[in-house]
Amino acid sequence: TKLKGLENRYPTQLSGGQQQRVALARALVVEPEVLLLDEPLSNLDAKLRVEMRGELRNIIKTTGITAIYVTHDQEEAMSICDRIAIMNKGRVIQVGDPKELYFNPKSFFVATFMGKSNVLKGMIKETDPMFVKLDGLQLRLDRKIDDKLVGKPVYVVIRPESIKMVRENIDYAENIIEGEITSISFLGSHYLLSINIGSIVLQAYAEASERLSQGDKVKVRIDPKDILIFEEQD
C-alpha cells in the first residue's frame, strides 16, 4: 500500500490517496471473491485520480480478485477495466472491452457516451460506394450500412481524433475538406480546434508541434472507416 512509516497516523492525517489505499487494503484483507468499488476516486483531485487508476488496476491484477468498478468517468473505466457494461436508464445496452465499445459502438448512446464526438445530421445516398450527405458536404463511408437507412435521415458521429490535418497537396485521397479555424485551445500535448466548414463546425485535435492560429485556412481528411452512422430515432 506504500504506507510504511504511517502506521501511527489517524485517517485525517493521511492524504486522499493514502486514505483510498487504506480503504482498499481493508477490503482486500478478507480475501473477497468479488470486490465492489463504487466510484472510489470521485473525491480525489485530477492528478491523484490518474495516479490511483494505475495503482488500482495493478492491485486488482496482482491479487487476482474479480472487481466490479462503478463510475461515470468513461476515461477511468477504459483505463482500469478489462470489460465494460454501459447502462442507460437502468438497462445494460452494450458489454465489451474498451476498444470494442469505443471503435464499434452498437448504438448512438454508446457512441456519444464513450469519448468526445462531433454529432451531425445527414442522409445516406444510394450509391456504390455509399456516401452520407450533410449540409453542403458529402462524405464517403467505409462501414457496412443497413440498406434500410438509404434515403433516410441519420446521425453522423465523427470523433475529433479521426479528423486529420492535411499539409501536402493530396488530390486522390477521399473526404478531404477545407475549412477555417474559428477557435483554438492549447491543452499541453495537443490543440483542440473548432473548424468551420460551411454551416458545419467540427472539433478536431492537432499536435502541439503544429503552428496554427485562429482564422487559418486548413485542409482536413476524415477516414471513411471512422465515420459512424446511426438511425436518427436510435
TrEMBL record:
InterPro entries assigned to the protein according to its UniProt record, in alphabetical order: ABC_transporter-like_ATP-bd (IPR003439), ABC_transporter-like_CS (IPR017871), ABC_transpr_MalK/UgpC-like (IPR047641), Mo/tungstate-bd_C_term_dom (IPR008995), NA-bd_OB-fold (IPR012340), P-loop_NTPase (IPR027417), Transp-assoc_OB_typ2 (IPR013611)
PROSITE patterns for this protein: ABC_TRANSPORTER_1
Native source organism of the sequence: Fervidicoccus fontis
UniProt keyword list: ATP-binding, Cell membrane, Membrane, Nucleotide-binding, Translocase
TM ranges: none
Domain Transport-associated OB type stretches: 156-230
An MF annotation (GO) of this entry: ATP hydrolysis activity
GO cellular component: ATP-binding cassette (ABC) transporter complex, substrate-binding subunit-containing
Ranges where the ABC transporter domain occurs: 8-41
Annotated Gene3D superfamilies: 2.40.50.100, Nucleic acid-binding proteins, P-loop containing nucleotide triphosphate hydrolases
Protein name: ABC transporter ATP-binding protein
Keyword Membrane belongs to the record: yes
